[in-house]
């Protein structure tokens, strides 16, 4: 599995557009299902340089198998500075075992 870190600086990814990320999340959120239109708003917030955050994707065989949308709150000290807005993994256990390990912390840019 490869990881793709999308930031306000990098902007929307050419291969995995915001809409495809939102549709993946909508399909895999189970009981906490948000609509794709609402998920896109969270992604746009994360990728807005004036607001901030990031999107982290787990990718295997050119397909998304996990996604996290993190929004900066701008409220350090009052509540956490970053909020894990939306996250989900593929339902196949072997495909997301490593994803769970990295979801515990923020990625570093390489």
What does this entry show, briefly?
By secondary structure, this protein is of the alpha+beta class.
- According to CATH, the homologous superfamily is Gcn5-related N-acetyltransferase (GNAT)
- The CATH architecture comes to 3-Layer(aba) Sandwich
Task: Give me the secondary-structure category.
Answer: alpha+beta
Poorly predicted tracts of residues: 93-110
Rg over CA atoms, rounded to whole Å, is 13 Å
Q: Main β-sheet, in a few words?
A: 4 strands, antiparallel
CATH class (first level) name: Alpha Beta
Describe the structure.
This protein is α+β, with helices and mostly antiparallel strands. It has a single domain, classed as 3-Layer(aba) Sandwich (Aminopeptidase), CATH 3.40.630. It contains 3 helices and 4 strands, in the order βααβββα. Strand 2 (53-60) and strand 3 form a beta hairpin. Helix 1 (18-28) packs across helix 2. It is globular and about 40 Å long. Residues 93-110 have low confidence and may be disordered.
